[in-house]
Amino acid sequence: MKAFWNERYSESEYVYGKAPNAFLREQLQRISPSAALFPAEGEGRNAVYAARLGWQAFCFDYSEMGRKKALALAEEAGVPIDYQVADLHEYHFPRQTFGLVGLFFAHQPPADRKFLHEQCYESLRPGGMIILEAFAKGQAKYQSGGPKQEELLFSEEELRSDFPGLEIQYLEEMETTLSEGPYHSGAARVIRLAGKKANAEHQTT
Q: What pLDDT is stored for residue 2 in this prediction?
């Protein structure tokens, strides 16, 4: 898979566009900047956008070509980002550090997905937010991108199970129209999640 993504990101254009994910842009309007983590960040569009708003943006992906294009995009925008090349089992997730974790179309096999979501939750500081968008189970019949294997697609039940401690503020599966470069374009079935990690005083029993 690493070779696949390096080949895709070697294209001269930004294959998912330079603009941030629309759901992220909407949600960041109501969150004060702090430190943010973007796993599986690809070409950096979301991390760079957050950095432009004053966030300290950290991200990782296992594609060297993705990192190269992300750093070029950050330089174009005049903002710093911290981008590491690592897969989700190599990356060191610091505990209770981030005010935001942004997960966008980070599709993994079920065991890896659960591991990633657990690590992301643990890396949030109390009060921190997870903002997620991914393709839902019904996406397999659409031609707008994403994996075709149902086990790699998302459901509301899986997300509730993966984030049992998250105070879910918004969770919805919907049809939308994507305009995120040539590989995310057209009608799509997606699922969106916004939730907050409980403050420390609410985590005791």
A: 86
Q: Which of 199, 200, 173, 198 is nearest to 188 (CA)?
A: 173
Alpha helices in 101-155 (DSSP H): 110-123
Q: Residues 97, 125: contact at Cβ < 8 Å?
A: yes
Averaged pLDDT for residues 105-130? 97
Q: Where are the domains of the chain?
A: 2-198
Nearest-Å Rg of the Cα atoms of the chain is 16
Cα separation, 192 vs 136, whole angstroms: 9
Buried b (16+ CB within 10 A) or exposed e, 44-61: bbbbbbbbebebbbbbbb
Architecture of domain 2-198: 3-Layer(aba) Sandwich (3.40)
- In tens, the pLDDT along 25-80 reads 999 999 999 999 999 999 999 999 999 999 999 999 999 999 999 999 999 999 99
* Length of the chain measured in residues: 205
Diameter of the chain by CA atoms? Answer: 53
- Cα–Cα distance, 34 to 81 (Å, whole number): 13
